[in-house]
């Protein structure tokens, strides 16, 4: 759609004598009259100031304009203006989703054309647009995986014994999971993760509605849980569910997963896990340690061990010109030993995802490592995909890594694990072979390429830091080298280990180096330290097994309170259904013609009622649009009867005195959260 601007109009009109007269007449008109005039045949607006004025009709422009709203507007405006705007809106030919955006293939062709004509600014703009296309495609098309329990595996709460049915009042459905301990070790607060699927007809929001309970001596007891990686695929929801489980050695434990409660609210659990910061620059703390991640790269920069006087692990100095940190992986040296490409050289994290919750904070990062003189050299050869997981109440955290060769190339060597500590915080090295037995002192030469755990401890303070290598293998090349002997006196001031796993230099396309490590810090003594680490390794190598379970008949059942919080069983002082229905009248009028509500956009994460106060937890679509107050304070000047704010619609409900809106970025919004109505209105 092309719209006439005042600047371009001036040039066109002055090109003729008749135009001069018309221009003088136009100059006498008000700014609002000029701004409203439009002509679909003329060039688009060039002036950013004038564009802003046009889009506002003095303030907000065509926001919220629809054909139905024009009748109201016409009573206050000239018919000429209304007809102009009607013609402007109806002239669009965008009918399908692909009319409103561009395909990956088309953007690739445009970028190739721009490259050939050396329009490099356009190349950069299109490459960013391609990245955004990839983000949206990931949201819509990424394979969620095979769920442990599919949408067809469920039972109704009404089928439960009387006391349990009463305890779970408000929820309609449940799944049964059975956990089994197989290596005769007592398990306490062990994280259990499962992928589950649910029928979209049975649940509106997995994040709000899912609850987990264990069966304990006839009682149902809620356990802390965390829902993440929520994906909608046609008529099903998929999500990962993480919960903390206790299980006696060699025994089984049954857990129920409840869902299907439209009145459920986002759960809130007590946790010692505290995460602060934005982006990848997070500070993550529990009762055992505090970890600080680099705001630039997301690498673990510093760590305080909360034992004794609280030793701080850090790497000082000027390093190699990049910011120092204690985690120095991942990198590789190019053919001919020319240079080293490192993720620690990122000027900002190329791509990342953050998951926050009461059980676990997950930091995922991926991208190609940088050259010391980036961007002079920017090969796309070995993609690094790294994930940290920090847990509530546990003395360890995980790192998962994948280094994937996307083309045939040669690397002199690569490192997939390296930790560096300045200031000699430890006195003795520790190491472990494939047999899982911990040793103190220097590594036996026979084991230098077969290490499955390395670290250090301080015999005086009992501080320790140890890396357990739980998985380490490759696809496409021979078995990796499991090296990385701990060096207690490297260059005098440093203590470190560095693993260089490549058995060959030539890496075919499709080669993948996998790792799963756990890093722990526990009070360590000669007497009990080895046993603690060996047992933890056994637990991590053999986690609780999870299968679909079933309830036995004639179960002993005991009354034990209820699952629901106040307001979650239809007992809200003000009906939540009425609130949800009212919010359908709060539209996002930045989508001029979609006529879509914040409910159908999936922006409303939660509703709670306290007496006559209603609280709404609201997300915004992306960080380029950070002001949620748009939906609480800004009313369309075109037709405020149709385009209402959240308070506008909720304060009309009998009994509502006040409305509070809390904005959140976690979890981030995506098109997966659109309702079926929302998807239809956006032609998805």
What does this molecule look like?
- This protein is α+β, with helices and mostly antiparallel strands and 684 residues long.
- It contains 16 helices and 33 strands.
- A nine-stranded antiparallel beta sheet has the order 16-17-18-19-29-25-24-22-23, covered by helices on one side. Strands 1, 2, 4, 5, 8 and 30 form a six-stranded antiparallel beta sheet that branches. A five-stranded antiparallel beta sheet has the order 9-10-11-12-13, with no helix packed on it.
- The N terminus is likely disordered.
Radius of gyration: 30 Å
The percent range for helix content is 10-25%
Mean pLDDT score, rounded?
87
Number of extended strands: 33
So what's the overall shape? Answer: globular
How far from one another are the termini?
Answer: 22 Å
Low-confidence stretches: 1-79
Secondary-structure class: alpha+beta
Output the number of helix runs. 16
Quaternary state of the chains = single chain
Report the portion of residues in β strands. 25-35%
Largest sheet: 9 strands, antiparallel
The spatial strand order of the largest sheet comes to: 16-17-18-19-29-25-24-22-23
């Amino acid at each position: 759609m092309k719209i006439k601007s005042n600047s371009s109009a001036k040039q066109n009109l002055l090109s003729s004598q008749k135009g001069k007269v018309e221009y003088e007449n136009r100059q006498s008109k008000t700014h609002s009259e000029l701004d409203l005039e439009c002509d679909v045949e003329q060039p688009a607006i060039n002036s950013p100031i004038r564009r802003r004025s046009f889009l506002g009709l003095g303030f907000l422009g065509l926001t919220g304009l629809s054909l139905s709203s024009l009748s109201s507007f016409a009573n206050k405006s000239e018919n000429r203006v209304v007809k102009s705007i009607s013609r402007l809106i109806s002239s669009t030919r965008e009918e399908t989703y692909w009319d409103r955006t561009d395909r990956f293939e088309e953007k690739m062709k445009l970028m190739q054309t721009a490259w050939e004509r050396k329009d490099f600014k356009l190349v950069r703009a299109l490459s960013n647009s391609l990245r955004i296309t990839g983000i949206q495609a990931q949201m819509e098309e990424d394979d969620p995986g095979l769920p442990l329990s599919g949408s067809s595996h469920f039972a109704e709460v009404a089928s439960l014994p009387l006391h349990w049915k009463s305890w779970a009042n408000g929820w309609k459905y449940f799944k049964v999971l059975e956990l089994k301990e197989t290596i005769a070790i007592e398990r306490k607060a062990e994280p259990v993760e499962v992928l589950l699927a649910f029928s979209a007809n049975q649940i509106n929001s997995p994040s709000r509605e899912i609850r987990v309970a264990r069966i304990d001596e006839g009682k149902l007891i809620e356990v802390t849980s965390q829902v993440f990686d929520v994906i909608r695929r046609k008529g099903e929801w998929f999500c990962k569910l993480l919960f903390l489980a206790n299980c006696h050695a060699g025994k089984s434990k049954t857990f129920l997963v409840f869902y299907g409660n439209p009145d459920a609210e986002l759960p809130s659990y007590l946790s010692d896990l505290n995460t602060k910061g934005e982006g990848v620059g997070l500070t993550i703390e529990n009762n055992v340690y505090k970890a600080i991640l680099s705001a630039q790269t997301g690498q673990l920069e510093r760590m305080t061990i909360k034992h004794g006087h609280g030793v701080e692990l850090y790497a000082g100095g000027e390093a190699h010109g990049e910011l120092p940190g204690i985690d120095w992986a991942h990198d590789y040296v190019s053919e001919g030993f020319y240079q080293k490409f490192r993720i620690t050289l990122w000027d900002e994290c190329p791509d990342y995802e953050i998951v926050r919750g009461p059980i676990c904070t997950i930091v995922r990062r991926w991208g190609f490592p940088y050259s010391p003189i980036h961007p002079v050299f920017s090969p796309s050869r070995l993609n690094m995909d790294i994930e940290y997981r920090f847990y509530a109440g546990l003395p360890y955290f995980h790192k998962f890594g994948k280094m994937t060769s996307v083309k045939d190339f040669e690397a002199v060597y690569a490192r997939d694990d390296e930790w560096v500590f300045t200031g000699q915080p430890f006195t003795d090295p520790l190491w472990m072979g494939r047999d899982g037995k911990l040793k103190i002192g220097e590594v036996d030469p026979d084991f230098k390429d077969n290490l499955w755990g390395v670290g250090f401890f301080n015999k005086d303070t009992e501080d320790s830091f140890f890396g357990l290598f739980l998985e380490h293998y490759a696809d496409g090349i021979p078995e990796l080298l499991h090296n990385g002997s701990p060096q207690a006196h490297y260059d005098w001031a440093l203590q470190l280990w560095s693993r260089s796993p490549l058995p060959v230099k030539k890496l075919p396309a499709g080669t993948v180096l996998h790792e799963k490590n756990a890093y722990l810090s526990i009070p360590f003594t000669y007497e009990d330290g080895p046993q603690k680490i060996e047992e933890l390794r056994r637990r991590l190598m053999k986690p609780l097994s999870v299968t679909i379970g079933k309830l036995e008949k004639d179960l002993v059942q005991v009354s034990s309170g209820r699952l629901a919080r106040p307001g979650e069983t239809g007992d809200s002082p003000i009906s939540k259904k009425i609130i949800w229905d009212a919010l359908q009248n709060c539209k996002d009028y930045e989508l001029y013609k979609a006529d879509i509500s914040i409910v159908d956009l999936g922006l409303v994460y939660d509703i709670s009622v306290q007496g006559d106060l209603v609280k709404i937890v609201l997300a915004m679509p992306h960080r380029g649009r950070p002001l949620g107050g748009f939906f609480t304070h800004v009313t369309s000047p075109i037709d405020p009867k149709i385009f209402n704010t959240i308070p506008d619609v909720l304060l009309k409900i009998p009994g509502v005195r006040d409305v509070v809106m809390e904005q959140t970025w976690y979890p981030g919004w995506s098109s997966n959260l659109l309702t079926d109505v929302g998807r239809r209105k956006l032609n998805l």
